[in-house]
Amino acid sequence: MGVIITILLMLIIFCIVFILLATTYNKFQVFTIRINEAETNIDTVLRKRFDLLNKSIDVIKANTNTKDDVLGSIEGLKSKKLSNFELDRRLYDCIKEFSKYKELYPALKNNESFVKIDVELSESEAEIVAFRKYYNDIITDYNKMVKSFPSNIIALVFSFKTKRYFDGKNQEDEDIYDFKL
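The structure corresponding to this sequence follows.
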């Protein structure tokens, strides 16, 4: 009778541990899905910004007498495979250049196409800010799970690593979020 009780207790303990492990693993999977969703949303807005800036080149050239390479840095982005982090930084630089043309050539402010692009770029800025916040909130919760006990054991076993925040830092910056034992 004592052996049966011992076996039942061990079976119950095993089931509880298995349920806890499965639950923690599933939480990591949910966070991974949410992170991918947030990255897709950010990617969509970045592509929209890229397209708007690309479209603005012809509008600027048509309405100014500039012989400069208008938004030359945007054309260089077409052929490069960049992360969303890097693309966001590069597009931000292009938007600053776009704004420079708006200030240098007041006639552009009267051009319907240019104004439409300017408005859409402003709207996309609000979108990207919201998606960055959503992404960073998810990353905060995910990184907490990777770092805290007992979920850090599951993270170690299944190679879940901390992720970077979408904060505009250079990729070459020291990654303070690397998990080290």
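Residues 145 and 151 are 6 Å apart (CA to CA).
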